[in-house]
């Protein structure tokens, strides 16, 4: 009887180990963004830069969707209202994509905008009319320019297929959104950050 009991316990232990291994394959361990350096996933290596992209895309939607809603009642310009609706609707699409990608990759996403974005939301929530229109166009255009460089950098170098797919979509959305905002005629391009200074060209050596 003792032999039978030991055999049953051994089989039960083996079942538990196998079940745990199966769960580990289906549900990848969550990544702490603060400590992530490099983690292997079925879609390829996942780096800290990849995780940062997922977080930034998520946070962009978390403030742009409500701000797009603000535009419906606070903007004076009809075009600003239209752009606000476009941003709100398209960020809903992008937010779904990033949440699906994060779930597959085991990345925990934030549930609120970052402090700067919260400050911009509060600023726009207190404005209306021409002041709202101007700040809406410029705050959002500046924010899109900053996130575009992050998305493009990850798209050019990520080794993870899931992140690469999301970054490609992100580039398409961000470029379209910058064009929407510029179509309002309110963006002050002189206030935007200048492009990085290119590296000096190597000297040309003439043949002797």
Rounded to the nearest angstrom, the distance between the terminal CA atoms is 96 Å
CATH H-level name of the domain at 44-186... which superfamily? Ferritin, core subunit, four-helix bundle
CATH architecture name of the domain at 44-186: Up-down Bundle
**Largest sheet, if any?**
2 strands, antiparallel
Pfam families: DUF4142
Organism: Nonomuraea salmonea
Domain DUF4142: 50-179
InterPro entries: DUF4142 (IPR025419), Ferritin-like (IPR012347)
Task: Describe the protein.
The chain has 208 residues and is mainly alpha-helical. A two-stranded antiparallel sheet has the order 1-2. The longest helix has 29 residues, at 129-157. The chain is 68% helix and 4% strand. It has a domain at 44-186: Up-down Bundle (Ferritin). It has helices at 2-26, 48-74, 78-105, 115-125, 129-157, 161-182; strands at residues 38-41, 44-47. Residues 1-36 have low confidence and may be disordered. β1 (38-41) and β2 form a beta hairpin. The protein starts with a helix and ends in a 26-residue tail after the last helix. The radius of gyration is 24 Å and the shape is globular.
């Amino acid at each position: 009887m003792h032999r039978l009991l030991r055999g049953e316990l051994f089989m039960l232990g083996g079942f538990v180990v196998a079940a745990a291994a199966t769960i580990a394959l289906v549900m990848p361990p969550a990544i702490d963004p603060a400590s992530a350096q490099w983690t292997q996933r079925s879609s390829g290596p996942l780096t800290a830069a990849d995780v940062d992209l997922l977080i930034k895309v998520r946070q962009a939607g978390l403030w742009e969707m409500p701000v797009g809603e603000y535009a419906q009642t606070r903007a004076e310009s009809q075009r600003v209202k239209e752009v606000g609706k476009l941003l709100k609707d398209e960020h809903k699409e992008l937010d779904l994509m990033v949440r699906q990608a994060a779930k597959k990759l085991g990345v925990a996403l934030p549930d609120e905008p970052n402090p700067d974005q919260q400050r911009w939301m509060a600023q726009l929530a207190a404005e209306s009319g021409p002041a709202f229109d101007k700040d809406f166009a410029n705050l959002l255009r500046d924010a899109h320019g900053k996130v575009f460089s992050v998305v493009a950098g990850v798209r050019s170098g990520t080794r993870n297929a899931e992140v690469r797919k999301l970054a490609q979509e992100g580039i398409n959305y961000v470029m379209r959104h910058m064009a929407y905002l510029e179509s309002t005629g309110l963006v002050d391009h002189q206030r935007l950050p200048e492009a990085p200074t290119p590296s000096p060209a190597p000297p040309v050596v003439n043949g002797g």
